[in-house]
Amino acid sequence: MGIRDKEIIEERFGPLWSGRQEVSIGGLIRTISEVKRAFDLVADDVVAIDLVEVPEGKGAFRFYDGEDRRIVVFVFDGEGEIHEEFRAHIGDWLGDLYHDSGALAYDAEAMIHILRKKLASEAT
Description:
Elements: H1 3-13, E1 22-25, E2 28-31, H2 32-38, E3 46-54, E4 58-65, E5 70-76, E6 82-89, H3 91-94, H4 96-100, H5 108-123
Antiparallel strand pairs: 1-2, 3-4, 4-5, 5-6
């Protein structure tokens, strides 16, 4: 894992937060909250990012795992079975900001806030 995993996540599923809050998978509309609950990811240190429709009737759920400090992607089918999983450390996006964050590295919401702010500044 490493920078290459970050590249795969961005190339295959688009920039973070470029997806949607709901997708149609297997003929059913699934919201990000429903998908998060279905995968039993209701802990405070799990922050949903977005959903992306992928070929073959599958979806991709992107989220931040604060315990592992990684951006995670589950590619799943209409039955909720995970077919692929990708993980990349948030430091791959934040660089020195991650190392300078100190104790904030253990606060999932704070890390997501820092990441969104950094990505927004890069987009302008």
